[in-house]
Amino acid sequence: MTAVSAGLLESVQPLASVYDVALMDLDGVCYRGAEPVDHADEGVASARALGQRMMFVTNNAAREPQTVADQLTSLGIPTLAHEIMTSSQAAAAILAAELPEGSLVLPVGGAGLRAALLERGFRLAGSAAEGPVAVVQGFSPDLGWRELTEAAFAISAGARFVATNLDATLPTERGMAVGNGSLVAAVTNATGVVPVSAGKPQPEIFRQATAKAGGTRPLAVGDRLNTDLAGARAAGIPGLHVLTGVSDARDVILAVPEERPSYLAVDLRGLSEPHPAPSPAAEGWWRCGAAAARVVGPQPSFELRVGNRTVDLDVDDAPVAVSLDGWRCLTAAAWSAVDSGTVLTDEQVPVLEVVAPR
Questions:
Q1: Which of 185, 266, 287, 354 has the smallest C-beta neighbourhood within 10 Å, fewest atoms?
Q2: Which of 25, 223, 267, 325 is catalytic?
Q3: Which is the catalytic residue, given 20, 27, 314, 317?
Q4: Is 170 or 44 the better-scoring residue by pLDDT?
């Protein structure tokens, strides 16, 4: 896998026809907690009909692959266990490359973490008193002071420290919940030891998932710039960003180069659509379809046109409705300006509501 262009890419064919496997995030892309994301079932079904394979790649380490597959199936996305790649599996693979089979490991997490370690041939410790050579910490809603303290004791005694992921938050149907990274931070604060992270945005989980799916042209799909899309960049994989989870349209416009997606969509129906890329034009304009945008002025501001109409982009709390092509143009104009030395802040970028044509 190689470096991907820092700008938006063009695909005249549907993405599902170009990329043989989609490395799909779950939370915020396919579901939010127990609730399905709108159009996720339709998007996955259409992509599969075009021949694209699915590998669901998640930083959530609490559950076993079959449990995750069963949830997706219940939400209208028929899935088999071998199509799931969890950060618990990635963490177990990292330790398997470092430690001999049968090594004693303290799992701090849910059933999915324990199952992944057992699958790799590790023995599981119940406490630091047993002398584990490694601690692996993954998310579980049942984790408490006792488990975190056992982890701290083991790590302070010299055990390796691996985290399945460092996500500070976890999207749920009620909002953003405390994620594994926030719980890991408690152990780090107690021990002074920063763990190796197995999950996104580290590239290894993408490489493992691609190999597991037998893919050669992977596409990462996610909703969070600093994990899903940063991980895609780190792994040299094009990334599709969808607006159904954490990072919104303004976040994408402000994205640093290391977190920029290659394609933009409102939801997973974007897998089965072509993706035009904005092209530069005279006087700093970027054009895509009927839309055009540019960044102007010493105190940067945006201009957006759709055909002969100028769109009012007053920066206030009210979202501005724009087309998908309009968002693409605004994004390309912003990235070009920033790469040329312009400084953009949150206050200079309008809140957007992206409306996809159907």
A1: 185
A2: 25
A3: 27
A4: 44
Domains and CATH numbers, the chain: 15-59+201-272 (3.40.50.1000), 88-197 (3.40.50.1000), 279-355 (no CATH)
List b or e across 118-140, with b for residues whose CB sees 16 or more CB atoms inside 10 angstroms: eebebeebeebeeebbbbbbbbb
> Which residue's structure tokens are 């579980």?
140
Q: What is the DSSP letter of 319?
A: P
Q: What pLDDT is recorded for position 45?
A: 98
Q: pLDDT digit string (tens) for 61-76? A: 888 999 999 999 999 9
Q: H-helix or E-strand containing 95?
A: helix 87-96
From residue 10, give the alpha-carbon distance in Å to each of 5, 15, 61, 219, 328: 11, 10, 34, 14, 11
What is the overall mean pLDDT for the chain?
A: 94
Question: Facing residues of 27 across strands?
Answer: 31
pLDDT band at 2 (very low <50, low <70, confident <90, very high): low
13-29: burial string, b at 16+ Cβ within 10 Å, e else: ebbbbbbbbbbbbbbbb
Sequence-ordered list of residues with C-beta below 8 angstroms from that of 298, at least 6 positions apart, any chain:
none
27 is catalytic: yes
Alpha-carbon distance of 307 to 230, in angstroms, equals: 34
β-partners of residue 54 are 22
- Which pLDDT band holds residue 293 (cuts at 50, 70, 90)? very high
- Read off the tokens for 149: 């303290």
User: What is the β-pairing status of strands 239-242 and 263-265?
Assistant: parallel
What SS3 class is residue 82? helix
